[in-house]
Write the structure tokens for this entry.
Amino acid sequence: MQIKPRQQLLDIWQAIARHSFTSGAWDWGEWGGRSSVADAERLLCLMYPATEIPAFRLDDPNTVQDDVQKALKRAGGPMELPGNLVTALAEFMDQYTDDNETPTFGGGYYFAPEQSKDELTKEQRELGVVDSFSMSVTLCLATLGFLKVYETKTQRADVKRRIQELRTATSTRLTAAMVSLLRSFAVNVFDTDSAQGRTLCRLLGQGRLSERVVLQQFQERFKALRATISESFVLGVEVEERLRDESQLFECGWAWSLVQDAPEVQTTERIGVQPEGIAHASPYLYFTVVALDGIQDLFSDRTLTLGLLNSEQQKLAEALRLRWEITQQFWSGIARFGDDTWPLEDIPWRTTGQRRLESEYFSLSVAALLVHDLVRRRATDDDLTRTVGVMERLAERGRITSRVTRDDGAVLLHSPGVTLPLQGSDAKGPPMQWTMTDFSAQLLKRTIQLCVLSRNIVSHDRLLRLAEQTLDHLWARRIGNGESAGLWDNVHAVYPGSQATEAPLSWSITERVTECMVAARQLYTQPPIRSAELATLARALLSESTHLLGKEQMEPAPPANSEEGAGLHGIEANLRRARQLLDEQPGTAYALTLGVLVELDALARARNAAFQEV
Amino acid sequence: MLVFAASDKGGTGRSVTSANLAYRRALAGDEVCYLDFDFGSPTAAAVFGIPRVLDGFGHQGLHSYLWGTTDEPARIDVWASTERKTLRNRPSGSGRLVLLPADRDGGEFVTDDESLHRCVDLFLRLNAEFDVIVVDLSAGRSYAMDMVLRATSRPELRSVPARWLIYHRWTPQHVTAAADLVSGIVKAGADMGHEEEALAGAIRFVRAAVPAVGSPLLSQVPSTTARWMRAYDEKLDVMAANRGIGKTRVLGSVPLEPVLLICEQLITDEDVNGSRIANKATWQALVELSERLTDDAYWGQP
């Protein structure tokens, strides 16, 4: 299936408008109770494309494009739509702010008990989760940008007042989300002899290197990072001391929630109470990826040009940026450890914390971290090409590009998904777990990101092919009928043997597919890959045709207004255009020049024919 | 309700579209009258198929009324007087459709306090009798326009709802001209005692003779032309938005239509479904326009 971001996004929007708006008002629905993650994901399905893609802007009713308008017809006419969005966003901000004016980030029904017989406490459901912090950063930035424009376009006093209130609430939530992200960042230091240390050594050495050699290489490779971490971050005294000890291994990234004993972040912004953390200070691959995705929006061009952050938020953003960069460098180093096969290429990945789970999902998470790093460094095609192979193998093993067998274990990856125990959650009740079902969507997103980055025709083509196949698979997983028709996730459609899910629809998958489509736009906004071979050929053709045209023009000029004269002018114009396109689109230049050569030759043959007659 | 139809330039199809609007409202059951205030070139009668309108009446048109030479301007029942057969029979359930023509040899004239007074009086009387009063003004700023602006600013007419339709074609020049015309109207109105915001809020635009890509008439254009048109359309949208006449202030747009363009007449259901000389899309656009005239959703602020 060809990737057509505009059409496919409009399809998604139309389905959301049908599902979520009842005569213009946003309908939150009842299923499963509320979850700040799900609700933020749901709003982002609309707000993210609307802020990232100029053609999808909804903030100026006067320039909303017709196809967008048509897709969102159920959500209100061009005049009401922005107002309806303001109402929905305000309801969201209000719902997730408690009585003490503190923004909340509860995981709600996304949390599940590890033992199905257990019942989670209300307090547990209200625990903040990194998914929510990260989604809130993206959603708040999208909202602030949206309001900035819409505010100048409306004349209605009541709307202006509501915009004002919403902006304050959004800004507060943004600050709170940033503070929470800072407080859930974790550095975990452990000994090579500990269980965790042995797993990491095995992972990095892949059975070829001894623990001693691994440790030595680890020390060398992460010396600078180790120093930066211990100098720049406020860590507990004990952790800091152990981190300075070169014989200790470490890892960094995001825990699932606020880390136990994480100190409060000093800020002059009023964000209410900063709750106590309970999560163990061990980073999760999944939550690290999620956090990085959100944090990067803080330094996007859009955030900077629109000036969406105030000075206090800028300070927090700087602190997050440091963690963002260090984490990427660290995991990118881990993924590509050693001189031989990368640990990442040794699928499936084994996690070091969290009871040593192993799954293709974790390989994908590590690949995602690597992609983040490649994008950040605007890496060349060398590292990228190796990653392409990993992506293809993951798609294969995840049964996206290959057929399912009977009782295929790979199906479990999609349904019921991969579960993570949330360490420390038992402080408030029975132990909780988190389930990820977004393997395919995650794979598509990273494939598209790599594809955008690649400037090598072969890798680009492989990635595009893979992205198209993955989209085929995802598109087939849309719900077929009912009020959620056109949204996700109906795993049954592609894996008939999978367990039926009870959730009517998954906002997390729907949001991730939307993100994929937004990323896919980048595929076509940049110029096509320039082929050096074609450019050489086109240049040679251009030289020949310019010469032949010059020769043709040595003949007596054709009469004015004649067909012949027009033909020559056309040839001149085509050659001019070809020369203009030579660098950017050598293929087009090539084709234009070929046409010119045919025409010139027809003229030459005609002239020759006259002489041969005699 | 008073509905003033103005246009930035000539050739926008103001008269013919407003006449169709009046006709649609009457079909829908409203009592409608149509005032030909295009004093320089009064032609509205022809649109309704009543070309010999004032023969035998002498001088009893709107000119004569405003000058004070007659106390009651001539009224013509369109259903009964039209020469078009398909219009002749007033459909059941429809309201009256009355034309108040101008004098044929009247010409543009300077209005004074006396004519202003008579104008206010006329509007008041008509408002008591009709649901919709369409006042067809001439292109650009005219004496007639100033007179109705002045009239509607009077306390007697304050309670009578008034809406303005500005017709313009969908070209850069027209967009600019229409935007300028409106800022002129609002400014002049404010000087005469209108509340500026309320007056500006009562103005909507009608895009006329729009060559919409995808309309049946243009379905055969080469793909390059179509692509160019779409791109240009977007450009015009942005331009219109910057000029303050973007989509939120548009009441409707009427596509390019040979029947309107060539013979300037009312488009009846027979023209669309029977003889099929007119396009369904045009008919649809006219129906929408007439419905939106009183639909408050289209008259709010963005």
Remarks:
- Chain A has two domains: 5-18+35-195+220-262+276-424+432-525, 532-613.
- The beta strands of chain A are 21-22, 25-26, 111-113, 185-191, 248-254, 349-350, 358-359, 418-422, 432-436.
